[in-house]
Write a structure and sequence with these properties.
Keywords: Plasmid. With about 60 residues, this protein is an all-alpha fold. It has one domain. The protein is built from two helices and no strands.
Length: about 60
């Protein structure tokens, strides 16, 4: 079963942010495994980026 459009959109966003490759065949199972592996890193990077933006806003 193919991953849904929303799943693909989320995967592409994580792929762009972290630079990790996507599974060749994006099935629901492959998507689930991939997402479990990379979501913690994505959340960490996004949080660091948000903190940097806040610091820039405070300093300017």
């Amino acid at each position: 079963m193919q991953a849904t459009a929303n799943q693909l959109k989320d995967a592409i966003m994580i792929h762009k942010k972290l630079g990790v490759s996507l599974p060749r065949k994006m099935t629901v199972d492959a998507y689930g495994k991939w997402l479990r592996a990379y979501t913690p890193m994505y959340v960490k990077e996004k949080s660091i980026g948000d903190i940097r933006d806040l610091i820039k806003g405070i300093n300017h």
